[in-house]
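Archive maintenance. Older records in this collection stored only the sequence; we are now back-filling the structure field for every entry so that each record is complete. The fields below show one back-filled record exactly as it appears after the update. Entries are processed alphabetically, and LysM domain-containing protein is next in the queue.

ARCHIVE ENTRY
Title: LysM domain-containing protein
Organism field: Mobilisporobacter senegalensis
Length field: 271
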Amino acid sequence: MKRLNKAGVLAFGVLLSVTFSTISASAADYTIQKNDSLYKIGRLFDTPVKTIKSNNNLKSNTVYPGQVIDVKAKTHKVKKGDTLFLIAKKHKISIGALRKANNKWNNEIEPGQKLLLPAKNKAPKVKKAAAKTTKASTKAKKTATKSVIPYTQKQFDLLARLITAEASGQPYDAMVGVGAVVVNRVQSKEWPGNITKVINHVPAGYYQFTPVLNGTIKNPATDIAKKAAKAALNGSDPTKGAMFYFDDSATNEWLWSKPLAIKIGNMVFVY
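Back-filled structure field:
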């Protein structure tokens, strides 16, 4: 067999490397996390469960923490100056989904590190029947035109009442931050898909928002809370992607163990 000279070997190696990169660009390793399911993973990477099962030769829907499976996902190679927030913003994905895709719950990343990119959030489909909406719902849609998530006037009022109950007397940015946490959850695939469902979410009997439990959510919203709600809905987020908040007098170790996003007044925001 004819030997390749050094230049030929180098060229062949480069070609092989490029070819391999092209083939593997859409395939990535995902490590199963606690409470994961194929359904959740499918939503995270916008891939049907049957496709995940087929690609991994899985005979059932059962998966285990620590198990590694192949998923179809793009990757981002971390560069100097990158942060999880900036990466999420660049690729138009939620920081919560980015953390979930990489099981990355702190903010430590290094140049050269490769991160899996979850699928982008899809805009909700609008049914044709929506053309026959009432004047009230049409007005609500116009109100939400500039918002980062869709919402109705009723949902806007609910968000403003939550902000009133949770952050009255706190700096304005803290009030916006409370609204932003709700918006971030709506945008994340790990939480319900609209404001009402996020605020009233009670997984395993655990209320996510104390005002829903103690009834203060029913109190009227203040004008400044409405202003803060509007700002959050239009994309303002002083927390840069936080998913939780609590008062600094809280003693919950689980909350305090989460990566800190920012502290504003007495309000602590974490990822």
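Update note: Strands lie at 27-31, 68-72, 74-77, 114-117, 244-247, 260-264, 267-270. The longest helix spans residues 6-24.
Entry marked complete.
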